[in-house]
């Protein structure tokens, strides 16, 4: 429903990734241009996140200027931010309608030019996020309610796999990938999240793939 509101061409869809074994990955329609991972925010993860940020700041990393990345400034909107990251970094693959172009411009203006101002939360993304959330069958949490699950996006930009997380200060470059191997490469990143919290079961992945 959210994709329809943005005017995304019906040639693209989000599908469940039922498992990380090769035979289950083979069920996902190709090509795949983004993967969204839902995972629990635990003490182990927060410790890793802090260490990772310090390591990257010290050593540096290569991030292409064409990567579209935005910070999350709205509580409980990580799914919406993940969708934005997935779609905006695949502009060359999708046929955007006029609705998306207008919406994307508003998102850019409000989130980048005014991200430090207190009225930023009244922008179009908040409106679209809230209206879509309340149309689902599951009751959506309050925008200010504290939750311990989080969405990130994994995308292929210029032959590199990037992790885009609005809670982090910058994209994370996970190395080289290709259109053919992207799903498998992204799942390897997902597995690392799971390995850091082996007792946790609350992981889920969906892929943005051809319809």
From TrEMBL:
The keyword Ribosomal protein does not apply. The lineage of its organism: Eukaryota, Metazoa, Chordata, Craniata, Vertebrata. This is Ubiquitin carboxyl-terminal hydrolase. GO terms for molecular function: cysteine-type deubiquitinase activity. Its EC number is 3.4.19.12. It comes from the Eukaryota. The gene is Uchl3. It catalyses: Thiol-dependent hydrolysis of ester, thioester, amide, peptide and isopeptide bonds formed by the C-terminal Gly of ubiquitin (a 76-residue protein attached to proteins as an intracellular targeting signal). The chain crosses the membrane at residues 96-113. Its main location: cytoplasm. The keyword Transmembrane helix applies. The record marks 72 as: Transition state stabilizer. Residues 1-210 form the UCH catalytic domain. The record marks 165 as: Important for enzyme activity. Keywords: Cytoplasm, Hydrolase, Membrane, Phosphoprotein, Protease, Thiol protease, Transmembrane, Transmembrane helix, Ubl conjugation pathway.
